[in-house]
Amino acid sequence: MSPEAGLISFAALTCLAAAMKKHRTGLTLPAQASPRGVRILGWTLLALAAAVGVRQAGVAMGLTAWIGQLCVAGAILVLVMSWRPALAPALACLALATTPLLAGL
Amino acid sequence: MTPPKDSPAGKALRQSMAWIHAWLGLLAGWILFAMFLTGTASYFRPEITQWMQPELRPAVVPPGQAAESAIRYLQRTSPDDLQWFIYLPDDRTAATRVFARAKPNPDAPPAKRRPEFKLDPATGQPLEARDTRGGEHFYRFHFQLQIPHPWGRWLAGVCAIFMLAAIMSGVITHKRFFADFFTLRWSKGQRSWLDAHNVSAVLALPFHAMITYTGLITLVAMYMPWPVLANFSKPAEFNAQAYGAPPEGKASGRAAPLLPVGPMIDAAARTWGGDTPRTVVIRNPNDAAATVTVLRSTAGRLSARPDSITFSGATGERLYQSPPSGPAIATAGVMLGLHLGHFAGPVMRWTYFLLGLTGAAMVGTGLVLWTVKRRKPNAAPFFGLRLVERLNIGAVACLPVGMAAFLLANRLIPPGMADRAKLEVATMFWVWFGLAALSLLRPARRAWADTLALAAAAFTAIPLVNAMTTNRGLVPSAVTGDWLFVGFDAAMLGVAALCGLAAWRAWPRAAVAAPSKPRAAKIAQPAAALEETHVA
Q1: Concatenated DSSP letters for B353-412?
Q2: Could you tell me if B355 lies within 8 Å of chain A, comparing CB atoms?
Q3: Which terminus of chain A faces fewer neighbouring Cβ atoms within 10 Å, N or C?
Q4: Percentage of chain A surpassing pLDDT 70?
């Protein structure tokens, strides 16, 4: 089982946090990203992460891996946001960027 | 979701749930913290065992060859046994483990259970290594708590029930479940502890709920034996009906040579879509009624219940194949599998490990929160508060030192010493409880900082002592590409860093600490909490 589901989940949760008023100021986002836009993007990425997990490892293993990695991604995101909030969107982009690389290997 | 305006009834419910949550959590918290931490370590049970026997580096061979070499050895040493159990090596265990049961002698009292031993998979020769409990110690402690059977398992079960109730009451109590989903604020006293407790609980809630419930279910037949007792005259009958019963025939008395097991293992692997067998059980070897039962590895599948195929040892005929599980047995197998995590590859194993640490952080921050909430500024702490504070230090900060001492003892106790495995285990408890007692000499605030700093030092010492006492230190292992040993040492340094950061945050400072860089909330960090009052 590989970590792609978790990496996409990290980006998804970052989007969902950015959609919340209290975290919006801390996370530097492109000016045109509306709360609604990032929320939709976040849920879409979350579904994508689940789909990637299922595609890689089947329904049972894929969903187990997705939920587990989602939880770890959330814990890491909260630690990052409480330390250097501006770092979170950058890490989210990095996580998304590495996903196809890993999948390609 | 914004929190709804509380109706009086809702408020009363929340308050009563908060009360239950605080007291259930406190009463079971110290044991739960130890269960979480040792259970988390147990996800690496085979790796810890390998690390604790550094003199073993057997060659990797296919399972069929390992089984054949083990059988050659057993044919030489004890050909007339009742049963041979052969646990084949895999990518996580390097040696073949063998356990043989002698035929019962009706004229003599039952013989003592023979010890299990390790064989070189390539040659079948016994492997000599230092005697140790290895990762098995953390695993057993995790649910038996080093208390005589059955009381340890009962106590662990009671704590797990408390945990389950604490999870449910905690979710009901938590007013801002979604509003505070990502919120963690540092250096704000009680606020910070509540945040840390909330996020470690909420973000990993699926894991916490799963691990607690499946942990209880694992031992459910012990905790609730009555359904089986009411319907079956013997537990064995229940097992046979639920799980299927491979033939357990008596020896015929007619000698017949045991066929090679390699082809049987290959045949089983073909049936299982290429999955390798994990265990081979041979009953009545060298008899016409001999049977060879092959159990499937559970790696890569959620259910921890292994399929099995039984062959005749004399003719090679396939006698029995375990039936496909029904829904109830499959559910039980998956629950056990989810708890044990044997299905997990490296990524999922580390995921489980981090989630386990999150669980320990949840329990640890909850324990500290209990004291922080009840401490009044400018008032001497009452007896109960001081007691809880001391027990918190003993459980949260001293246990990691004890665990590190167990690993250090493995390297420092001479390999040939008698009873050294027991001595290693004793070291963990003497250091753990001894340090908890010693920390009473210091003011609570200092005791937190000192014990956490000691934990950091002890975990840092592990790779150093390993490098000094074996030839498998961090550098040589990295050079030879021995990633298990590299990973183990690196993990110890990582844990040391976390303990060090916790100690640094807990260090008593003259003034209120300046807002500093936030830290991982892995282990309790009492600095913020203890800023308000100095407990002397």
Answers
A1: HHHHHHHHHHHHHHHHHHHHHHPPTTSPPPHHHHHHHHHHIIIIIHHHHHHHHHHHHHHH
A2: yes
A3: C
A4: 95
- B/e letters for B373-391, b = 16+ CB within 10 Å, e = fewer, are eebeeeeebeeebeebbbb
- CA-to-CA separations, B35 to A38, A103, B364, in angstroms, rounded: 40, 36, 12
Distance, CA of B307 to CA of B304 (rounded, Å): 9
Q: Please tell me the distance in Å from B440's CA to the nearest CA on chain A.
A: 33
Query: How confident is residue B220, by pLDDT bands cut at 50, 70 and 90?
Result: very high
- 8 Å CB contact between B387 and B444: no
pLDDT at B353: 97
CB B121 within 8 A of CB B66: yes
Mean pLDDT for the stretch of residues B82-107: 90
Q: Does A68 touch chain B (CB under 8 A)?
A: yes
Of A6, A17, A68, the CB nearest to B182: A17
What pLDDT is attached to residue A104?
A: 65
CA dist B174 and B335 (Å) reads 27
* Segment B139-149 mean pLDDT: 96
For residue B189, is it left (φ>0), alpha (ψ between -120 and 50) or beta? left
Q: Measure the CA–CA gap between B444 and B536, rounded to whole angstroms.
A: 7
| Residue B170 · residue B62 · CB < 8 Å | no
Q: Does residue B517 carry a pLDDT above 50?
A: no
Residue B420 in tokens: 């050294």
The alpha carbon of residue B133 and the mean position of all alpha carbons in its chain are separated, in whole angstroms, by 13
Go through chain A and tell me how many residues it has: 105
Which residues of chain A make contact with B348, given a CB cutoff of 8 A? 1, 64-65, 68
Supply the ipTM of this predicted assembly: 0.95
* Residue B532 pLDDT: 37
pLDDT per residue as tens digits for the range B74-87? 999 999 899 999 99
Question: What is the rounded CA–CA span in Å between residue B339 and residue B332?
Answer: 11
CB atoms within 10 A of CB B343: 22
Of B182, B343, B345, which has the smallest distance from its Cβ to A78's Cβ?
Answer: B182
End-to-end CA distance of chain B: 43
| Chain A CB within 8 Å of residue B302 CB | yes
Query: How many other β-carbons are positioned within 10 Å of the β-carbon of residue B332?
Result: 21
Q: Does A13 touch chain B (CB under 8 A)?
A: yes
| Residue A27 in contact with partner chain B when CB distance is under 8 A | no
Enumerate residues 6+ apart whose C-beta is below 8 A from B33.
B360, B363, B364, B367, B395, B396, B399
Answer yes or no: are the C-beta atoms of A8 and A96 closer than 8 Å.
yes
B296 φ, ψ (degrees, to nearest 5): -75, 145
Per-residue pLDDT band at B378 (split at 50, 70, 90)? confident
Task: Report the gap between the CA of B207 and the closest CA in chain A (Å).
Answer: 7
Tokens read off for B465: 């002592």
Q: Is the pLDDT of residue A58 over 50?
A: yes
